[in-house]
Write a structure and sequence with these properties.
By secondary structure, this protein is an alpha+beta fold. The chain is built from five helices and four strands; from the N terminus they run ααβββααβα. The radius of gyration is 16 Å and the shape is globular. Bound molecules: zinc ion. Zinc ion binds near residues 76, 121, 122 and 123.
């Protein structure tokens, strides 16, 4: 096994770097476009500083937080989330397990603060209708 080999293609790396910076990833932009269509433009702030887990999208007065999670980084139980790069597998498995634990702790902590949280997964965004319905139900309070 080569250590230090880059498990990502160049293209993928650009996505990863954006994900690391944690702002304006493609899935986040998609969710924000859906919110705009649902009539929630400008009613939220992004980057959730000061809240557990730094939710990507925050509706402060409604105490609702939305996480937009990449399936790989956050260990979603889907085909994409189940993939592990062959290089440095132990490193990735540990890292993703820590991300999952941190995500679960953030949702629990938000709940303790009487906030509700919704997670939208990257793989759900392949289809528009389902995540849009999920967002709408969550924000209208019926979720
Ligand atoms: Zn997924």
């Amino acid at each position: 096994m080569k250590t230090g080999a880059d498990p990502f293609s160049k293209e993928k790396r650009a996505d990863v770097m954006r994900a690391v910076k944690g702002k304006n990833t493609k899935p986040e932009l998609k969710v924000r476009a859906m919110l705009r269509e649902l009539g929630y433009a400008r009613r939220y702030r992004i980057g959730g500083a000061g809240l557990p887990g730094k939710p990507d999208i925050v509706f402060s007065s409604a105490r609702k937080a939305i996480f937009v999670h990449g399936c790989f980084w956050h260990g979603h139980e889907c085909a994409r989330g189940a993939r592990t790069p062959k290089a440095n597998a132990a490193y990735w498995i540990g890292k993703i397990a820590r991300n999952r634990a941190r995500d679960a702790a953030a949702v629990t902590a938000l709940g303790a603060m009487t906030w509700s949280a919704l997670t939208i997964w990257e793989c759900e965004l392949r289809d528009e209708a389902t995540p849009s319905k999920k967002l709408s139900a969550f924000l209208s309070g019926s979720a």
